[in-house]
Amino acid sequence: MAPDRLLIPTKFAPPRISPQSTLRTKLLARLRDARDSGLTLVCGSAGFGKTTLLAQWRQQLLKDGELVCWLSLSPDERLLPQFRAYLTGALQQAGLPVDDGTAFASEVRADLPVAGLVATIVDAVCQQGQDVFLFIDDYHHVDDSDTHALIQGLVDHGPETLHLILASRTHPPLAVHRQRLTGELAEIAFPDLPFDFAETQDFLAKHLGEVVPDDARLIHDITDGWPVCLQMICIRLKRSPANRAVLSQLLHRRTDLQRYLSEDVVRHLAPDVADFIEKLSFCRRFNAELARRVTGNAQAPVLLEQIERDNLFLLPVELDSPQPWYRLHPLFASFLQDRLQQRDPALVQEIHARASQWFEQQGLLIEALRHAYHANDTEAAVHLVERADLPIRSMSFISTLQHWTDELPAEVLLGHPRLLLLGCWALVAAGRWRDAQGWLERLERPHGTLAPEHALHALYLRASIALQRDDTEAALALVAPSDFESLSDRFLRQAHLAVLSFSYCAAGRYEDARALHGHIARLPRSELQDEMALVAESTLLLSHLLAGNNREAIRTGSALVARAEAAHGRRSVSAVNSAAFLANAYYEADLLAEANEVLANRLDLLRLSSPEPMTLAIIVRSRLMAAQASPEEGLRALDEEEARCRELGLDRPLAYVLAGKARLQLQLNRQDEARQLQAALDQLAVRHRNAAGFLAEIEAIAALAGARLALASMDWTNAMARAETLRGYGVTFGRQKCVVQADLLSGTALAEMGETTEAMHRLNAAVESAQRLGLVRTLLDEGERVRQALLQLQLTLGPGCAGDYLAEVLRRSIGAHVPLQQSDDAGAQANGPALKPREVEILRLAAQSMSNKRIALTLNLTLDTVKWNMKNVFEKLGVPSRYDAVIAARKRGLID
């Protein structure tokens, strides 16, 4: 009987790939590119899909006609005798003539030389005459130096046709430095294994059906792309469907995850390692020095190296620092925190106190402040806040200071003005401007004046509060451009630029707003990634958006959101505000999937932000729901927002909500309901007639809604009058999109009145401007009557840019969202040189707003290689920028 017949046959094939498995397209591309490597290592923690990934690659290799051997290990094969029996059996299963004289595992002699088996396998592979791919899964079970020596021998002496692929939870103790230098080693490391958002969406769709983007993003953020956690969530939701409000609790507290981590991960840890990572879990990031201080363990550097080698959910943090920083997977950290909190709450406070002291010594005062709060050390927190050089690089202090302003007695806060002023900044950033204003009044009440350094903060707080109330004129009255040069406070310099630039945008002074970005560019390099500096920089994006230059808004916004996310996280103030602006631009370009993704799981924060990002988020969210679900869904969303706007007393967001509801009611042929909404809008317009800044927008909103209603009611004269009011606002405040809308509506009214020549003139002007600015949904969203007028215009236009652009817009239906060619020469890129697979893959990542550096890391390329490929892409597609390249590639069907 052949030896392989006496072994467990299921070890010679991977688990069956479920039809619901998510194809790891990017990782498989990396493996395909490295298929000539002699050794491939796939290393990562439990539950991150190593086996599934290799099974998918094995399947592709078999389809290509390659010779594949598979061996799944268990603890029974941790020693050489059993291992070599199964290794021989796996090779024999694939037809290789390997025979070391053994019958089955129990008869393997331990004294058989390793070198002999290496020679036997090498000889068999050479005789085979074709490439042999040997997969060994769960290699971490191997605990024997002779077995490692056997694999090392195959790595060192195997022919070019032998390709070893090892999957392991830990890095195997193999000497692979030569292979790494010569390019013969391919590696998929732990940070590569988590799902990206697109993979999470695919996984959820296959297991749960259609999942709304907000829920998908929330689940992705909770799990950090950990596949086994996604599986657990899906199982729980299938058993008992839960709403979004409980998703974040689904895995954090005493659930399947806790059992999984206890049974499959933590119980295998040495006591000193378990104690070490439990204490570290309370730090959002750590290095060896902080780990030594927090844990009290002098062996912290050695233990960190061991944890990284063993892939215990340790992820690198990309920082410009001479020593490496790490973080734990958030769900694993939460699990460890719960364990220690239940066992020793006093020790938890001590850990936070140690961390606070260490961060303060390093000058990282915001993180020191967070840990002081969790240590319940108010005295230490006050000391930190009142340090004159407190740098507010990140606004992550918001939640901490909000808690303090809510919990500390008034006499404590009033006795520490700097602490209270920073608390007021936190309240303003969270949309609680009334609370901030109340504290300011109490702070100034005893003497009527504040110390100079406190008075400046109070001044900029009042300007920010004015912006929260949409009173941009008041903000401009408080802040003068010349004040910038006299400011020495780092945070206030950035706040000055943000307040002034927002105010300029509101007043239609876009060039003045952009001129301020010269000051931002001249900030010290260390300040450019500060969160308030990024908030100030977001006004450049806002200026393009308000001016109507949608193409430039997307170019600027995609880069800014990526920077803000990289520096401060996806749900940071700077990232959330910029995302609201970018989502609006994406929607206008009819990139609805991109708009959904950039807005997903951020609406809760945007509802608490300043009026401009809040308003734009409301608009985009309701329009996405109406376009992708139904007008009724859009109306339900706006009903909720209307109640909030009335509660906050914000008239401009309320006007947008009422106008959005009126548009949807007209879409549903409910003119009576639309008239009631229009009456409320007109009342708001009267209240703010001749207003300045953002409040002047209310009259234009009412005019736009009124023109739509007049067209639906066939009141052509009123439609013309309303459109002219809208046009006047657009000209006065530089809102080119408003001028386009006015031309569309007035042109349609003129066409209905039989004034064909003037109607076609205005409609043509609207289309030409829309093409120049990159406006799409503006032409699509005005309803059937406008569409018919545009169809009439199309008959008068010959071939050419505007005609081609209009034809492409009119071919689109509400449910079809194929991106338009955004070049000024529409259709010029329909044909051209073919892109190479590598160039297409780089474009796919560029479409996700990845930087060249991030693309290089993702694809395991050098930065110069990525830049060279991008240059070739530009030349082949005939485009000047990454954005235009992505649009052109989508139009040609090269990428999704």
TrEMBL record:
Domain HTH luxR-type: 828-893
GO molecular function, one term: DNA binding
Keywords: DNA-binding, Kinase, Plasmid, Transcription, Transcription regulation, Transferase
Pfam families (UniProt xref): AAA_16 (PF13191), GerE (PF00196), WHD_MalT (PF25873)
Swiss-Prot/TrEMBL GO biological process terms: regulation of DNA-templated transcription
Annotated EC: 2.7.11.1
Domain of life: Bacteria
Gene3D superfamilies reported in the protein's UniProt record: P-loop containing nucleotide triphosphate hydrolases, Tetratricopeptide repeat domain, Winged helix-like DNA-binding domain superfamily/Winged helix DNA-binding domain
CDD domains: LuxR_C_like
InterPro entries: AAA_16 (IPR041664), P-loop_NTPase (IPR027417), Sig_transdc_resp-reg_C-effctor (IPR016032), TPR-like_helical_dom_sf (IPR011990), Tscrpt_reg_LuxR_C (IPR000792), WH-like_DNA-bd_sf (IPR036388), WHD_MalT (IPR059106)
Protein name: Serine/threonine-protein kinase PknK
Species name: Cupriavidus necator (strain ATCC 43291 / DSM 13513 / CCUG 52238 / LMG 8453 / N-1)
